[in-house]
Amino acid sequence: MKTSDFDYDLPLSFIAQTPKEPRDASALLILHRDTGALEHTVFYSIGKYLRPGDLLVLNRTRVLPARLFARKASGGRVELLLLRREDTNTWECIVGGKGLKAGVELLLDENGPDAEIVTVLDGARRMVRFSRPIELYLPRIGHVPLPPYIHTPLKNPERYQTVYARDPGSAAAPTAGLHFTPRLLDELQGQGVRLAYLTLHVGLDTFAPVTEDDPAQHEIHTEWCELPQETADAINQARQSGGRIIAVGTTSARTLESAAKQSSVVSRESSVSPYTGNTNLYITPGYQFRLVDCMITNFHLPRSTLIMLVSAFAGRENILHAYEIAKREKYRFYSFGDAMFIV
After folding, report:
1. What is the DSSP letter of 279?
2. Contact 103, 119 (CB under 8 A)
3. Which of 39, 85, 200, 339 is 20 to 30 A from 224, alpha carbon to alpha carbon?
4. Under DSSP, is residue 138 helix (H, G, I), strand (E, B) or coil?
5. What is the 3-state secondary structure (H, E, C) of 69-136?
6. Rounded Cα gap, residues 60 and 228, in angstroms
């Protein structure tokens, strides 16, 4: 297996720059992984492919307004992107600016706290210590970070949040969930589909392509996740009654499979337990899924760990063929793009 096995050509015109309105008007490609057969529909019709007793598992993380602007004492402009909190006042960040070495002091715009670069990490990453907890200031001075391939300003920042987002902590949205509206969720529950929630805080590494020729040499990013007791109970009940576990997004799939691994789930008779902690689960073709029966997902970047994950679930040939058909049918790709339902 080579990283190039997960490459495909995508002209820039296919990358969605703005979200579809309303949310559930996105196109939906149904992929039957046992046969490779494809169907075309609209996301608000997804209920036709769901059954009473199915369990939708959604990631309720909320994107932090984690993009900050600061200046050095010399007046030079600096941009900070919060990635991961190390302790109460210290964050791992991606920084933009010149001369950003250890010891450099920063002044945040709009009367935010002072900050200091304490450690130089690889590339543009730095450990930055703030004089006060920065979370207190984010609603006022922070900006929602969009993926690097989106260049059109977002008029309403809430469109880069799911309608059920609750737990702040992500640097990027769990985009498969962006298609759901409150009305659609109510309709699905009305037909007997159950909902359950977990949290995985998405890091920016999710967008990074694998640069190694051999995917096995790639160091997967680590993300914090939580599968609570009530979700574990809902999963176990659904499996016992014959319902399907449907992961809404690769982030939900990764959390579910991390919990399954921790609980040593080996069959439908096995029970999953709550799970809280970091996960570095790296899913590539050959992986045997323990909990996920179906998956809702967007169209992913070539050579990324995400296209490898969905290829592990549906088969690499099926995924690459579906992507070529999606291009032919003018589907929109990436974060604000259209969706797939892999059954």
Report:
1. E
2. no
3. 339
4. helix
5. EEEECCCCEEEEEEEEECCCCEEEEEEECCCCCCCCEEEECCCCCEEEEEEECCCCEEEEEECCCHHH
6. 12
Closest CA to 296 of 141, 184, 216: 184
Q: How far is CA 140 from CA 47, 143, 209, in A?
A: 39, 9, 33
SS3 content of the chain, % helix, strand, coil (to 5): 30, 30, 45
Going 100 to 106 to 109 to 113, the CA torsion angle's sign is positive
* 3-state DSSP assignment of residue 239: helix
Which residue's structure tokens are 């899924």?
A: 289
Query: Side chain identity at 2, as an amino acid letter?
Result: K
Domain architecture of the chain: domains with CATH:
3-63+154-342 (3.40.1780.10), 67-141 (2.40.10.240)
Each residue's pLDDT tens digit, 176-204: 999 999 999 999 999 999 999 999 999 87
pLDDT digits (tens, 9 = 90+) for 41-89: 999 999 999 999 999 999 999 999 999 999 998 889 999 999 888 999 9
The answer to whether the predicted template modeling score (pTM) of the entire model surpasses 0.85 is yes
Beta carbons of 36 and 71 less than 8 angstroms apart:
no
